[in-house]
Amino acid sequence: MTFSYEVVATQGRARAGVFHTPRGAIETPVFMPVGTLATVKALDPDDLRTMHAQIILSNAYHLHLRPGDELVKRMGGLHRFMAWDGPILTDSGGFQVFSLASLNSVTEQGVEFKSHIDGSARAFTPESVMQIETNLGADVIMQFDHVVPGQSDHAAAKDASERSLRWLERCREEFARLHEMEGAPKQTLFPIVQGGIHADLRRAAATHISSDANWDGIAIGGLSVGEEKPAMYEMLEVCDDAIPRDRPRYLMGVGFPEDLVEGVARGVDLFDCVAPTRMGRNAAAFSPTGRINLRNAAHREDPRPLDESCSCTTCRRFSRAYLRHLVTSDEILALRLLSLHNVHFLIALMRRAREAIRAGTFDAWSRDWLARYHSKPDQS
């Protein structure tokens, strides 16, 4: 079984489709829970299966530093290591190298940096990252790219985008070499469209990447990194016009509810973000009418669930009053229950988006959903 994608319904730019992988079919649009260190924080793989997660994401940078990609390979690969038998995508670590690490230098060869864990000197090149991601054994792996802040000027964004395209060719060559070897995992490599918030750079990168028909999917990176939301939406529209419509589009690192709905409306198929579990660890929960802050005293005697329309185990079993008690008592269970709800919320939101596209009602559904969500942006 190889990788392939089929579009089954459209409405405007929005698409419902199926991304076929050797480990199973993924219905799109879809949210991918983030398991940075081979775990979605506070959740068990069985939790993810129960909420119908179809694919999860891990990170090559973090796993290379700890416990080490070669160790993961010796343990049978990432799927066996974390007891998840569904599809996995690994981010190459480009974003982490440029945001977490203490940089020494960026050259045409690659990046030298210091580990954010112990300060040890490290180096990533397109070739070494392909080796790391091959060792991890995820189904979809990302190219090593040069990421710059969202507000970067045209010159800086151009330099990073063009370097990313050059690194892409090196990634592809090394990927091909590694996968000629016996025992190589079944994987596909996604390129990444960079270019900051500059339409001409985004269009040029997308056109360059799209000129090669062999990609099984194309990612859009370097957004939601400090730019204003209207600028992000504009860049998605630019990319939608330049990327083939018969391939899945992956918007990297974007996962707030309104951004998912806006992204689907602009042709995006796959999303990921640490936001749902990070918010859960900070006493915040998603709801159809905005964010809920469980530290607020208004929830002290509230018998309602977080979301009466939600079918997750948190909402079926526990009141806001109980959740607030856990939060104010610093109970570990609060982190788990809120993270579980938030991840479930985004997975279910994308399921409803798929259903609306297939029914031909996405335009009305998304318009109504966004109006309701923005009506109470923060139930603090």
Q: Explain this structure to me?
A:
The protein has 380 residues and is an alpha/beta fold. It is 43% helix and 19% strand. It folds into two domains: 4-273, TIM Barrel, CATH 3.20.20; 284-379, no CATH class. It is built from 15 helices and 18 strands. The strands form five sheets. Strands 4-15-14-13-12 form a five-stranded parallel beta sheet. A four-stranded parallel beta sheet has the order 5-6-10-11. A hairpin with a 2-residue loop joins strand 16 (284-287) and strand 17. It is globular and about 60 Å long. The relative contact order is 0.13.
Shape: globular
User: How much helix is in the residues?
Assistant: 40-55%
The SS-based structural class is alpha/beta
Helical element count? 15
Strand content is 15-25%
Low-pLDDT segments:
none
- The CATH topology label of the largest domain is TIM Barrel
* Biggest sheet layout: 5 strands, parallel
Overall structural domain count: 2
Quaternary state reads single chain
The total count of strands amounts to 18
Q: Superfamily at the CATH H level of the largest domain? A: Queuine tRNA-ribosyltransferase-like
> What is the rounded Rg?
20 Å
Distance between the termini: 49 Å
CATH class of the largest domain: Alpha Beta
Summed over residues and divided by their number, the pLDDT gives a mean of 95
What's the architecture of the largest domain in CATH terms?
Alpha-Beta Barrel
Strand order of the largest sheet: 4-15-14-13-12
